[in-house]
Amino acid sequence: MKKKQKILNTMNTEEVTLDDFQKTAKQYFSNLAITWNSGNFSILVASNDKQNFEEFINAMDSPYIPEEYQYLFGLPIQLIRKARIEFRRHGHDS
């Protein structure tokens, strides 16, 4: 039990929040978006090149996340800037 408690305490105290990550990322990137999220795990995409940022995300399929594990809706969610991004629909090339 001590090992489990130590791991959970370390995870809790060492975890970076999305707000903290966003504040730091703003210092280095002009575009940032969340493309996947489940619980306290997220995938973020960041770039200083708006066109590459848009093309990369727009080429992605929307993630398969079972509804019971979805904590953020409306992905992708932009955290910095407002590029034109959206996932392509599954099975459709663009």
Which bin fits the share of residues in helices? 25-40%
Supply the number of helical segments: 3
Report the biggest beta sheet as strand number plus sense, adding barrel if it closes.
3 strands, antiparallel
Strands, total number: 3
The secondary-structure class comes to alpha+beta
Strand order of the largest sheet: 2-1-3
* Cα separation of the termini: 51 Å
Rg from alpha-carbon coordinates: 16 Å
Residue-averaged pLDDT: 84
Task: Summarize the helix and strand pattern as letters.
Answer: HHEEHE
Strand residues, percent: 15-25%
Shape: flat
Low-confidence spans = none
How does this model look, in words?
By secondary structure, this protein is an alpha+beta fold. The chain is 32% helix and 20% strand. It has a 3-stranded antiparallel sheet with strand order 2-1-3. A hairpin with a 2-residue loop joins strand 1 (31-38) and strand 2. The mean pLDDT is 84.
